[in-house]
User: Which sequence fits this backbone?
């Protein structure tokens, strides 16, 4: 078996699902029933897809010494389409919140604080693990001048919004698998929301939030290379909440025929070489809109175990690259992993998969969830800000 074989991905999905199922039995975890169950199920699939993509990329990197997209349209889309759908999910959730708060007002202070509580704790833990991994690989020697060394860490501390420099001049800054590139776009969207809300909310944001929003967007344009394809993803994610709010179209989306259309669209997406292709992007938007409107894909996306994988997906997204690097570099040695046959490499990744799921669960339980609960507690203590 080769890491670009579709069965490689399928087996990883099954191992991850079984591991998550056993965790749910052991710890009696029940994902709360909610309005967006299909979105939760989708997130579980997306985070695993990014892990699978990077496992394939690692194999390629060890063979040719170059970190690049996998030489497979399917595995390329595992990475790029998944992140595009994550952007759409972000847009869907927060445009929905704005539409829901259209008449009642929106608490902007709580919103920004909750975003910090949601993204920062797990990110900074991951960053600490990256720095420790790099320094261990460097034998705790600093190979750049101190200002450059600490400047690189500072850049990473701000979610690489400016850029993503190598820490300590080490090629192993790729420890996280390059996933952090998506986080600046998440922050861009959050800071755009006060401006977007001007056309949605009856009670407009206060002047300070408008200025904050404009300042961040202007700064982002100057310091970050913006790819329009990622902005289109946020636009695509806003289609479903508008349809839910102003039409009854979502009531017709759960049928057998629509599920077949989703599967067909996913197959076609996997044939594209670039997610930036217009037709590919439209297919991704169509798939997401159908799922966001409630299509369960024959019930798959409502599965409790898959939704549990969705709950822990942020930890999966941040930790899987660190785990792969740790096992390859410290556990076996990169040269030894390089010399594995394709089948042996696949078996190694299969063995790593439960570790990724367990680590993600622990990250969610002990880092993400406590801070999410703190954010909710703050929200209940503060009045809605008009």
Assistant:
């Amino acid at each position: 078996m080769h890491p670009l074989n579709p069965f490689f991905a399928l087996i990883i999905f099954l191992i991850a699902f079984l591991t998550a199922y056993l965790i749910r039995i052991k710890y009696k975890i029940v994902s709360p029933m909610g309005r967006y169950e299909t979105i939760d199920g989708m997130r579980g699939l997306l985070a695993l897809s990014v892990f699978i993509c990077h496992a394939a990329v690692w194999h390629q990197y060890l063979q040719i010494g170059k970190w690049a997209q996998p030489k497979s349209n399917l595995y390329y889309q595992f990475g790029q389409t998944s992140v595009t759908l994550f952007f759409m999910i972000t847009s869907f959730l927060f445009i929905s919140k704005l539409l829901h708060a259209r008449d009642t007002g929106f608490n902007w202070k709580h919103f920004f604080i909750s975003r910090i509580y949601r993204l920062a704790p797990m990110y900074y833990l991951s960053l600490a693990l990256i720095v420790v991994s790099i320094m261990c690989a460097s034998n705790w020697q600093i190979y750049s001048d101190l200002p450059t060394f600490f400047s690189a860490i500072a850049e990473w501390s701000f979610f690489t919004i400016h850029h993503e420099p190598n820490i300590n001049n080490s090629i192993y800054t790729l420890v996280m698998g390059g996933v952090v590139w998506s986080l600046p776009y998440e922050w861009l969207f959050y800071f755009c929301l006060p401006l977007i809300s001007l056309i949605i909310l009856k009670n407009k944001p206060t002047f300070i939030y408008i200025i904050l929003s404009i300042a961040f967007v202007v700064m982002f344009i100057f310091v970050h290379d913006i790819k329009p394809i990622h902005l289109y993803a946020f636009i695509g994610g806003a289609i479903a909440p508008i349809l839910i709010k102003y039409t009854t179209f979502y009531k017709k989306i759960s049928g057998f025929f629509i599920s077949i259309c989703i599967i067909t669209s996913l197959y076609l997406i996997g044939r594209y070489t670039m997610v930036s292709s217009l037709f590919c992007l439209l297919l991704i938007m169509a798939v997401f809109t159908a799922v966001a409107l409630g299509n369960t894909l024959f019930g798959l996306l409502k599965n409790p175990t898959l939704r549990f994988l969705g709950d822990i997906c942020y930890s999966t997204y941040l930790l899987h690259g660190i785990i792969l690097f740790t096992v390859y570099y410290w556990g076996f040695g990169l040269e030894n992993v390089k010399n594995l046959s394709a089948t042996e490499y696949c078996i190694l990744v299969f063995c790593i998969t439960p570790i990724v799921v367990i680590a993600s669960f622990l990250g969610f339980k002990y880092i993400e969830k406590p801070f999410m609960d703190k954010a909710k507690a703050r929200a209940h203590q503060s009045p809605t800000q008009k």
Notes: The CA atoms of residues 21 and 305 lie 6 Å apart. Residues 6-26+39-119+226-381 form one domain. The chain has a mean pLDDT of 91.
